[in-house]
Amino acid sequence: MDPIAWLIIVVVALGLVVALGFTAFRPSRRRGTETATRPRPSGHVPGVGDDAAPPRDTPKRTIATVELPEGGGVSELEVLDRPAPVVGRMSRLRSRLAGSGAIGRSVVGLLGRPTIDEAAWEEIEDALISADLGVAVASEVVEHLRQTLRSQPEADPKALLRNELLALVDPTMDRSLALGFTTPSIMLVVGVNGTGKTTTAGKLARVLVADEHDVVLGAADTFRAAASDQLQTWGDRVGVPVIRGLEGSDPASVAYDTVSAALEVDADVVLVDTAGRLHTKADLMDELGKVKRVIERRVPVSEVLLVLDATTGQNGLAQAKVFAEVVEVTGVVLTKLDGTAKGGIVVAVQRDLGVPVKLVGLGEGPDDLAPFDPEVFVDALVGE
Q1: What is the C-alpha separation between 60 and 55, in angstroms, rounded?
Q2: Mean pLDDT of the chain
Q3: CATH, domain range 175-382
Q4: What is the 3-state secondary structure (H, E, C) of 79-141?
Q5: What CATH topology corresponds to 97-169?
Q6: Is-above-0.85 flag for pTM?
Q7: Structure confidence by residue, pLDDT tens digits, 288-318
């Protein structure tokens, strides 16, 4: 045989051997089999949601693709954030709480006078009203303080004010999120435009992941162009899949698909972000009611969280009442509570709606959403 022909045969054979060897030793990339973990950074914090837990890395989530109408799907992330532990988060963020003792300093100073005349009592009432307690509640507090000081003239003014405010905030209310009563637990996030609903939904996903829940996010705000992308970013950071539809698609359909996806992958929590809407727009409020009804064709809704901007004060209460009528609000999330001294809105909201404040936003950071702690909150207001 010609030497050139032999050379060609040898080169081809060597090429086949190299190709077969690469295929045999290349790591598998099949979806659902990868178990890569996030590299442990310097200053590694043990555990997820529990500082006392043994050190471990957050594993990459591997969730099967769910075929949805209109091009929806489930995302998967390569590298994940580690959410801060939830336990004690409000105490750690205490310095950011509303007013940082502004109510306490002004009222306690007046209560500490040797004699409190009628003008001083009016100043105390005005200070409480300015803190968004509302006129009726402020008058009630002033009357209780008057009666107590008559019977206990040597009482500590700060302790008196703390006890009054703590009773108003009501530490006996159940502020836990409704989890585990259905499979999966369904949470609907609602509210008017500009209150920070999508950001709250993203931060809440981090809270749930820190507590080791398997979460699916639903981007049911299909009318604001950036809403789905914004929620996708939040989900990607902690490895939470996001179900989304095309812009302008039916929000109820996206919500239904989200629940269907969660059932398929055995997630234990579904978090649905809805579009912001004015409480005066009857058609949009009807649409919100439809979203809830459609979800409940598959699984009952466990929690309806109304997101309110704390800076709107008493003006937000009329909005809150309409939402409560349409979708039966079960809890309130107060955002932007770090930027206002009007912490009394917590009392006003709970009294008007009859539901507890469950979460508060205390900053711009990704882990600045905290479970509401009445005692920490009141201590911050009176300057303890």
Answers
A1: 16
A2: 79
A3: 3.40.50.300
A4: CCCCCCCCCCHHHHCHHHCHHHCHHHHHHHHHHCCCCCCHHHHHHHHHHHHHCCCCHHHHHHH
A5: Four Helix Bundle (Hemerythrin (Met), subunit A) (1.20.120)
A6: no
A7: 889 999 999 999 999 999 999 888 776 777 7
